[in-house]
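Encode chain A's predicted structure.
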Amino acid sequence: MATGNIKSGKRNYARVTTPTTGSVANAAQGGQVDVTFTGSTLGPAATSYLLTATSTSTGAVTITSTLTTSPTTVSEFVANATYAFTLSGQNYNGLGTPISLGNLVIPASYVLQSTYNTSGSYTVAAGVSKIAAFLISGGGGGARGANTNTNNDSGGAGGGGGGPAIVGFKEFSVTAGQTATITVGAAGNGSTNVTSGNAGGISKITYGGVDIATANGGGGGTNGGVGGPGDGGAGAGGSGGTGSSNVAGAITVNGPSGGVGASANTNAGNGGNQTSNSTIEAEGAITNLLPSNTSYGSGGGGGIAVGPTKTAGNAGAGAGAGGNSGNAAAGNANSFGAGGGGAAGDGQGGGAGGNGSAGQIILYIK
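Encoded structure for chain A:
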């Protein structure tokens, strides 16, 4: 092993030897690359490694980064630019001879085109070749609690609305000048008479006359049965929304069902939660579906305030809770897609069902 020699009172150390192997590849997140290398076991050891990436592409500049571990992710690369990569070992005596890691084209990253809270359209702009999206359907409305019978006994409580479906897809090819139609699902209104709540609307994206992704709305809660608490049956919770897509690799998450209304023998059911979060990256897979840490829930079932009183159901996150006191209306949803709560049955007639919320579509382009 070369250790240098003494000349004029100074030690003349040999330079570090080149890395044995090295490679570079696009990382899961856009604008980043993964660097893998193996240091040489011959000669003076490297204390770190210098990665240099040069490019002649417009808007790209030379990027350098000092690496100490392998693999390492390096960021700040420009989309669609081609870079030439080299890697050099370095120590107290300077840089060693670099090795080439080859050339790499950095893929484009998705950028937000728009967040649609109402229906609209997008005409594909020049230079855009792919789209990705999250679709959230409308949430179902809660049902009213049943009217009393002739003995002034409470009817069954209404069920909570069902939560929304969510669909996520990416890498769908589009052509400049063509139009994608954006349909955002309407809120499902709660019932004010003795009927079921309304289902939430469908959110979908249509391209070339074909629905490429569809999120069906959460179902409306069912009203409770008329009669005494022993006879007035509990209203069922609305079904959770379902989703579908013909885009390869798309993922769907069904919404949670609403909570069942209370009856003489049981308390109301709670609404459910649907929690997940994700961002869409250029190379990564969609593994979770929500575009933020927001939870999308379903409505709680209504309670009963007279006779054998029964507690209303709690709402799922963002949803309305079930009405609980005499003739009380249920809570409305307070975030996108959540189902409205079921209303309480009482000795004077049931309260109104809560409203769900409208859906949302978040569209990305690259």
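Residues 1-12 have pLDDT under 50 and may be disordered.
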